[in-house]
Amino acid sequence: MKIHASALPNIPWQPRPAGNGDLVWRYDANPVIGRRPLPRVTGIYNSAVVPWRGGFAGVFRTEGMDRLPRLHTGRSADGLKFEFNPRPVAFRHENGAGEIGRMEYAYDPRVTEIEGVHYITWCNGYHGPTIGIARTTDFESFEQLENAFLPYNRNGVLFPRKIGGKFFMLSRPSDTGHTPFGDIFLSESPDLVHWGRHRHVIGKGGPWWQGVKIGAGPSPIETDEGWLLFYHGVTGTCNGFIYAIGAMLLDLENPSRVIACAREALLCPEAPYELAGFVPGVCFPVGCLCDADTGRIAIYYGAADTVTALCFCNAHEIIPFIKANSIK
Ligand code: BMA
């Protein structure tokens, strides 16, 4: 199986601990980013990290003492220790801000490189949550484009290359609140502004762990076997929602077709930092790094809506598992 991405020999990595039989294992110094990275910031989670100029850059969700979510950039030499810009990302707008500049809040950023440009998609407050898009070539200046969809929507995730000359994005139509429902859809666009040809990809349900809603995680990884997509699946309990990490494979040329979807979650909230925080019981995958040469994958996930954690797996193990244990 081949991975169609770059080699990343400096990917943050730890081997699977002896005696651990899981497909995904945690970084032993988690949380990789603790809750107080900047003055008066009380949480940093659901954030995306990408390779950048020999090191790493990222866009991070923070929450201050006012509990409003904002986006900050950060840099790291090793993907483990980060320095953050204390000022939230200030977007510029080609034709003046106007309505696009109305951004009531911003959270859950994904970062996707397409043809040398990095695109940020996030949950943008515009009369309710929808999908904001911006682009950057230096992680300093960000140009915001039109919102992709009508409110309400979340978990907008771009594919890292055009397919048949079009941009493709996964998203999860929702409501204004914490959405007790939700399926993943695919939309396409010629220009990242006009989106259409919306197709249903996969619904919640099937196994209990994703019985309430599901949403795309980091940008999909291209492999010979299909697009490898990590996602969050949510179940309901008498104490609220539980968010776990799962994986599926989508067809390379028609990504609304699910090739296989693993029946089991790969990582469920268990560690103390996943079970204690502003929202206990949340593992929310948002960014991932992959070394095409070895298949090593490092997933950054928000833990308990408070801190950022890291876990590891290998595409050469995950993909056969998805195919052998598929709900389809
Ligand atoms: C979802 C989003 C995520 C959050 C999750 C768990 O609805 O708001 O940002 O991590 O709930 O609270």
What is the CATH topology descriptor? Tachylectin-2, Chain A
Helix-strand pattern: EEEEEEEEEEEEEEEEEEEHEEEH
Into which percent range does the helicity of residues fall? under 10%
Summarize the main sheet: 5 strands, mixed
Number of strands: 22
Q: Which second-level CATH architecture applies? A: 5 Propeller
CATH superfamily: Glycosyl hydrolase domain, family 43
Counting structural domains, the number is 1
What's the alpha carbon Rg, rounded to whole Å?
18 Å
Q: Care to describe what's here?
A:
With 328 residues, the chain is mainly β. The chain has a single domain (25-324), classed as 5 Propeller (Tachylectin-2, Chain A). It contains 2 helices and 22 strands. The strands form 5 sheets. The chain has a 5-stranded mixed sheet with strand order 6-10-9-8-7, with no helix packed on it. Strands 15, 16, 17, 18 and 19 form a 5-stranded antiparallel sheet that branches. The two termini are 21 Å apart. The mean pLDDT is 96. The site of beta-D-mannopyranose has 11 residues, from strand 7.
